[in-house]
Predict the structure of SnoaL-like domain-containing protein.
Amino acid sequence: MTDSVAHRYVAAINAQAADDLMALFADDAVLLHPVGQFEGKDAIGGFYRDIVFLGQARTEIVNHYALDGVEIAVLEATSPLDPNARSVHAADVFALNTAGTITQLEIFYR
């Protein structure tokens, strides 16, 4: 299932394609992340621009699960800015509306 929301999300992050990434989110989407809660496309876009893209994150899907209206992606992320840094392991839970856009993304990592 390479055309899943999770796969398109990872492709947009790796390409730093902000417009492609934001097209995946509903206008009133909510992002729940360990650094904070971001509501609406402007706030979510700022998070990706100021944190994820700035760190040049490279993300790979390790496992992917799709249920009715929900996708779960287990990810491994690295940054080329520090080749000695450890990878970050995350679980991203995507809640989708009937149009297939993200209404809520909850990210857990260690």
